Amino acid sequence: MVIHPTNTFPSNPLFKGPAPVQVAFDRKELAIILSLYGRMVAAGEWRDYGISFLREMAVFSVFRRTAENPLYRIEKRPKLRERQGQYMVVGMDGQVLKRGTDLKAVLRVLERKLIRTVK
């Protein structure tokens, strides 16, 4: 199969147009998120996580137990980079807790919960 510069796949007659693009967390972003995740697991607050790479966004979901709805979602939406910021933390009720362009600054809203649980 030959990939043309236009990212089309001529050998597949059912697929016409550019190759699908997924948004993903890069290695640095995942290191920041997993560092927080490890501390919250050690504190007994979180137990499981899930990662979704979609066309418009990447989502890191955090669970207290495996079979329930996520406590928090850490989302990356590159299209919002110039507006509100590409990172956001969403609570279990769908409320946006923090939004911004710096991932570490956005995750501080969750680190405050870690400080409260240690006391």
Description:
- By secondary structure, the protein is an alpha+beta fold.
- It is 27% helix and 23% strand.
- The protein has one domain.
- The chain has helices spanning 27-42, 103-118; strands at residues 48-53, 58-63, 72-76, 87-91, 96-100.
- The longest helix has 16 residues, at 27-42.
Number of strands: 5
Q: Which strand order do you get reading across the main beta sheet?
A: 1-2-3-4-5
Low-confidence stretches: 1-10
Mean pLDDT: 81
Listing every helix as H and every strand as E from the N terminus to the C terminus, the arrangement reads: HEEEEEH
Residues in helices, as a percent range: 25-40%
Radius of gyration: 18 Å
**Strand count, sense and closure of the main sheet?**
5 strands, antiparallel
The proportion of residues in beta strands is 15-25%
Distance, first to last CA: 59 Å
What structural class is derived from the secondary structure elements? alpha+beta
Task: Offer a concise description of the structure.
The chain is an alpha+beta fold and 119 residues long. It contains two helices and five strands. The protein has helices at 27-42, 103-118; strands spanning 48-53, 58-63, 72-76, 87-91, 96-100.
Question: What are the key terms here?
Answer:
119 residues; alpha+beta; 5-stranded antiparallel sheet; 2 helices; 5 strands; 27% helix; 23% strand; globular; disordered N terminus
